[in-house]
Each structure stands twice: as C-alpha cells, then as structure tokens.
Specification:
- This protein is about 65% helix and about 10% strand.
- The strands form four sheets. A two-stranded antiparallel ribbon has the order 1-2. It has a two-stranded antiparallel sheet with strand order 3-4.
- It has about 260 residues and is mostly helical.
- The protein is built from eleven helices and eight strands.
- It starts with a strand and ends with a helix.
- About 45% of the residues are buried.
- The longest helix has 23 residues, at about 240-265.
C-alpha cells in the first residue's frame, strides 16, 4: 500500500523526510545537502555554507581524518623503511596482483612523494567536509573504498605493467560522487562549480606525465555509480531501509571490481 503525505493525506508519495522519516509530497519537500526534508525538519537542518562547496559547518569528520591518518602513516613508513622498497612491495603492479592481491588496496594508501600526498590529503579533507556530514561515515567510507578498488581495476586495464600508488582513484571517486549527489539534491550551482574543478583535474590527468590515468577515470566512474544509489535513496526508490541497501550496493560494486581485477591479472 502506497504511503501518503503526512500533511496532505490525499496525495500518495514514495519520498520520506531524511530526518524524521515521515512521507512527504513534492509540495512539502525541501532539498538540503542531506536529502529531502519536511517543512518542520527543514527549519532545523544543520547550517550550511554555499560557495565552491557545500558542507555542514563545524561538523565532525572522523572517517575523513582516519583515512588521512592511514595514508600519512603509510608515507611515514615509506620514509622509515625506504620509499622504493615499500612501493615495490605494496604498490599496484599488474603481474604481481594475482599472487599478492592486497596490492589493489595497499597501493591506495601509499604515495610517491611529499607533494603527492600533500595534494591528495588536502583534496580528501575538502571533499570529506563536503560529503561525510551529508552521507554519514559508513556511506562515505564505502564510496571511498569502492572507488579505490574500481580505480585499481582501471590501472590493470589501461596500464597493467606500471607501478602505481596513491589515493587519486578514491579521490576522483569522491569528486564524481559529490557532483552527482549535489545535482540529485537540487544544488546544481554548487555541482557545476565542482564540475569545473573536476574538468581541470582531468586536464592534468592527461597532460602531466606519470599519472595513473586508469585510476582517475575508473575511480571517477565508480564514484558516480555509487552516488546514483544515494540519489535513488533520496528520491524514495529504495524504501525506508535505504541506507543498508545503498551500503550493500556500493560494497557490491567494490567487490565486483576487486574480483574482476584478480581475474584479469
């Protein structure tokens, strides 16, 4: 039986308020960075700042800091044990992936130099402030890891004999996910601003040497696919248990990418 808007009982709807869960019709929907809200909850939503990004002001981002910390620790280990040694042992290298499958994950937490990790961590921090408060840490981490795995698949497909490291595949996934989710939540102006930044980064991808093009392209595609499940949930297409369904679907994308990567290596 279809639900009806709690304020307009004669109107059927498949959309629920992302805060209180009450069903709402189009006239009662208010788009926010964390989904559709009913009139009451929209007046209580977290204050946001709109500009080149949209994020909850002063919101906690523990998952973002945890991911950053893992990469920073990885870089410190590289320095202590010898960068070339660690990258050779744990970087993504096609011919060794079938016998050492952990490389499809560990490579995403290693970096080739100070500038490399500094840039990636800065972008991760910015995107984390945008996405983690809006999605919650489980979905944020799921998108990050799925994009990382799909980015690793891209490296194996496009340049399997290269030795690749870096969080760029996951970060491009977050870029694309943010773009899709902002558009899906009615924040087209902010999405277009972010889209411009994505285009600039893609230009660098194809013009700067020694960049893992496959990681960037496949990671972005993976993040966009993950975001489509979030948008579907926002629009009420996944029912009241949307978050577990979204997490399952996003995780399935990452696992499928890992399985394919191992199968073709």
């Amino acid at each position: 039986m279809a639900e009806v808007c709690y304020r307009h009982p004669n109107r059927e709807t498949a959309v629920s308020c992302s805060a209180c869960g009450r069903p709402i019709c189009p006239d009662c929907m208010t788009p926010t960075p964390v989904g559709m809200r009913c009139p009451e909850c929209s007046n209580q939503r977290t204050k946001v700042v709109r500009g080149t990004s949209t994020f909850a002001e002063n919101a906690a981002i523990p998952a973002t800091f945890t991911l950053m910390a893992i990469s920073i620790v990885g870089y410190l280990v590289e320095i202590g044990a010898g960068t070339n040694r660690i990258i050779n042992d744990y970087g993504l290298f096609g011919p060794l992936v079938s016998s050492e499958p952990y490389r499809i994950v560990t490579s995403g937490f290693l970096h080739g130099g100070l500038l490399h990790i500094a840039f990636n961590m800065y972008v991760l921090f910015i995107l984390g402030r945008l996405l983690e408060p809006a999605l919650g840490w489980p979905r944020f981490v799921a998108i990050y890891l799925a994009s990382l795995l799909i980015g690793s698949l891209g490296v194996i497909v496009l340049d399997p004999n290269s030795l690749a490291v870096g969080a760029s595949g996951a970060i491009f996934g977050l870029f694309a996910a943010a773009f899709v989710i902002l558009h899906g939540r009615g924040l087209a102006a902010q999405a277009n601003q972010l889209g411009f930044i994505i285009v600039i980064n893609l230009i660098f991808t194809f013009t700067v040497p020694h960049i893992a093009i496959g990681a960037h392209l496949f990671g972005a595609a993976g993040g966009a696919l993950c975001a489509l499940f979030i948008v579907a949930g926002d629009r009420g297409k996944l029912g009241s248990s949307r978050v577990p369904i979204e997490l399952t679907a996003i995780s399935a994308l990452g696992i499928a990418a890992a399985v394919i990567t191992l199968a073709i290596s």
